[in-house]
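B., you asked whether I could sanity-check this one before it goes into the benchmark set. Here's the sequence:
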Amino acid sequence: MNEIVRLFWNVYLWAAVFSWMAAQTVKLILNFLKEKRWDFKLYGSTGGMPSAHTATVSALAMAVGRGTGFSSSQFAMALIFATIVITDALHLRREVGRHSEALEKLTKEKFNTSSGHKISEVAVGLIIGTTVGWFL
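And here's what the prediction gave me:
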């Protein structure tokens, strides 16, 4: 039971969670400014500005680096994990979005075409994540 209680005091976990929430909230606000309506389904969405995946893993890596040291094996693992996720967000998921657009044209069905990220979306996610990870 004590381990479960300590889980809620895990600063690395909270850095990742808060960063994801911050990125999704920015996405919600930007959508409101554009569409003039609140769309809370965006909290469960992928793609778009900013990249919540990037924000989450960069906050985790930064918090681990600050907490255990930037030369620790824990930071190395978090950094490699973040690099893989960010690369996936930039390349693989962008291709999924392109394939979805092509399928829409071929089948006339609706697909999620916003599953990938532009470099600017990843950059903003990285800024959010590293900031939250540094200060948490």
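One thing to flag: The chain has a mean pLDDT of 90. Otherwise nothing jumped out at me.
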